[in-house]
Amino acid sequence: MRIKRMLVLALGATLFAARPVLAAKTSADNTYEQLKLLVDILGYVQDNYVDEVDSRKLIYGAASGMTRILDPYSQFLEPEMHREMKTETEGQFGGVGLRLNMKDEWLTVLTPMPGSPAYRLGMLPNDRIVEIDDSSAKDMDMSDVLKRLHGAPGTKVKLKVLRGSDGAGESAWKSRDFEIVRELVKIESVVWRKLDEGVGYVRITEFSAKTVSDLSDVLRRLKKEGVGSLVLDLRNNPGGLLSAAVETASLFLGDGKLIVYTQGRTVANRQDFTSGAKAPYAETALAVLINGGSASGAEIVAGAMQDHKRAVLVGQRSYGKASVQSLIPLPDGSGLRLSVARYYTPSGRSIHRDEKHKTGGISPDIAVEISPEAEGNLYAQWETIYAKDKKPRSAVKPEDAVRDEALDRAVELLKTAPNVP
Q: Rounded CA gap, 325 and 262, in Å?
């Protein structure tokens, strides 16, 4: 069997890259003889199971089980879920606005999407989803989860979550209930504002096809306004397109520097991604904010900045998602999302998360620990209210605002040492 084409998509914490997908090979082992076992089981079930079964469901179940044992990111996508994924890559979909992953065997919020219903209600990274519409989420596969969370705008879904912190005992996790009204969720990639004393602030929510052009427009505007130093906020950025992350780093790194390299199963599968000869903002003083919701493409940018000593990293350890997925469309409308490589920072670091040993991620140069409650307040402050003939404002009243300690620390560094790092 030969896979004829590959579709490259960006979605959530998954880092997608255009890489060749090799045809399945006949090996010297007994793989195809073992496949006969599956055919035999299919025949026995069809002929002898107490109820009549749909053979297509059996095949899909086998495909799902096959990919489930690989890693948390490889997945067989039934046609409906495949269509949902492609819809999300177009920039909008009906849902609650959560990026999800499996962590410590729990369905876990990687990040809420800014402006989404889940975001406004105060759901946080690392919230564990234990129930969806009164059904246990403990053993749900991701396709079932997305079917339950996505839906027509205006409809409701109930979530029960556990909230705590890594390292805390199970008894310290507290239960919270959310009833969320689904909306047409739109992805906003770049948020920015000018701070005092020539410091600019830019937050990238994820790396999409439009990120680099939007970011370039913002940086040009800030430069015209006299901004000479920049805080690049990658907190809760779950990733996206590999190309967009590389091009973002290239705005600040020139001279053909290595930004990231990917390595597949064999040495021949290595691919290097480098910056251009010149970077338009190579002289801009830079501080980068990261936290536990910074993953994949966000970690590529942060890792390149840190390895080349181009920026100072402030905040909390990043998530540690360093695998690259290809999304392969299949003839019946289903799809296969397959991990085909891992990426490494320019110095050769593997920052991929190891659940067993609790390692992985990128450690900031300057750590600023923030409680889950403070994070929730900060996310609420990031929400911007727009009204006709009025200036945009925070959803939180000034008197209720909390201090963004990581941002303040980064700004302080840029003001006191404008040539950092």
A: 11
